[in-house]
Design goal:
Blueprint (H helix, E strand, L loop, with lengths): L2 H17 L12 E7 L5 E7 L10 E7 L23 H6 L3 E5 L22 H17 L2 E11 L1 H12 L6 E5 L17 E6 L7 H13 L4 E6 L7 H4 L3 H9 L4
C-alpha cells in the first residue's frame, strides 16, 4: 500500500466525517447507472450499478452487493447512495481495485428480511433480497464479465442485519462480507455459514443497534471456526459506515477473498 494512496483516502475520510452525510443531489452520482431489474415473474427491483473503472469485457471482475438501511427505502432509486455507496467512488481506491457495485432499493413499506430486522432467529431473505441475488447471480452475468468466485456482500443497519442472515441462508454464495452497524441473533450462525469470512464494523455508542449484538455475532462466528475481523469505533453512533467504507485495509482484504 503506497503512502500517498493511504494518505489521500484518510484525508477524504476526514472531510466526509466533518461534512456529515453527503446528499445524493450534491454529489457526482452520474457513474451510478440507474436501472430496473425485471425477472421472469415480472417482479421488479430498482438498483444503481457502478461499473469497474475502464471496464474491459475480456476481463472478469468481482461484484459487490450493497444493502441499504431503513432510511434508504423508497422508489426514487437514489436515496440508498447517501448511506455509504458514494464513498466507493474514491478515485485512488477505484484505481487500485476494479469492481462492480450493485445498490438495490427496497420499497417504503418493505425490508430485506421477511421477519423483524432486530434479530429474530427465524429471519429469512425477503422478496427484494431474492431479486437482488437473482440479479447478481444471473442477470448481470449475461451482460457483463463477472467473476463468480469473487462475489461480495455488505450492508448497513437493516441491510447489515440482512447480511448475517443471507450468509446463513445462502452459504457458499459470497466469498466475503462486511456487515456494518448491524445486529442479529448469534443462534443463527452455522458451520456452513462461517466458511464465509466477515469483517464487521460497529460504533460503541450506537443508539439504535447495541454494540453487544455485533460483538456476540462475531464471537459466534469465531466459535464455529470462522474468520471474523471486527472494528469497533467510538463517537460515530449509528454511522460506522463512514469508517468502514473509508478504510483502505478493508477494501484490500475484501478483494483478496475468493470462493474455492
Amino acid at each position: 500500500m503506497s503512502f500517498i494512496w493511504f494518505r489521500g483516502v484518510r484525508i477524504a475520510c476526514w472531510c466526509i466525517l466533518l461534512m456529515g452525510i453527503l446528499p445524493a443531489q450534491a454529489a457526482d452520482t452520474n457513474e451510478f447507472l440507474a436501472r430496473i431489474y425485471t425477472n421472469a415473474a415480472h417482479k421488479t427491483l430498482p438498483y444503481r450499478l457502478l461499473l469497474p473503472k475502464g471496464y474491459d469485457p475480456k476481463q472478469a471482475y468481482p461484484v459487490v452487493l450493497y444493502l441499504h438501511g431503513a432510511a434508504g427505502r423508497g422508489s426514487d432509486n437514489a436515496e440508498p447512495l447517501n448511506w455509504g455507496p458514494l464513498l466507493w467512488l474514491e478515485p485512488a481506491m477505484r484505481e487500485r481495485h476494479r469492481f462492480f457495485l450493485v445498490v438495490p432499493q427496497c420499497p417504503h413499506n418493505g425490508g430485506w428480511l421477511d421477519s423483524s430486522w432486530m434479530g429474530l432467529g427465524d429471519a429469512r431473505p425477503g422478496g427484494p433480497v431474492r431479486l437482488a441475488l437473482e440479479l447478481v447471480a444471473e442477470a448481470l452475468h449475461r451482460e457483463f464479465n463477472i467473476d463468480s468466485k469473487r462475489r461480495y456482500l455488505t450492508g448497513v443497519s437493516m441491510g447489515g442485519h440482512a447480511v448475517w442472515v443471507i450468509l446463513v441462508r445462502q452459504p457458499g454464495f459470497f466469498a466475503a462480507a462486511v456487515p456494518v452497524c448491524s445486529g442479529g441473533s448469534p443462534t443463527l450462525v452455522t458451520d456452513a455459514a462461517r466458511q464465509c469470512p466477515v469483517w464487521a464494523f460497529h460504533s460503541d455508542d450506537d443508539p439504535l443497534v447495541p454494540v453487544e449484538q455485533a460483538r456476540e455475532l462475531v464471537k459466534a462466528w469465531r466459535a464455529h471456526g470462522g474468520t471474523a475481523k471486527y472494528t469497533e469505533c467510538t463517537g460515530l453512533k449509528h454511522s460506522s459506515w463512514k469508517r468502514a467504507y473509508a478504510e483502505p485495509e478493508m477494501f484490500d482484504w475484501l478483494f483478496q477473498q475468493r470462493l474455492p
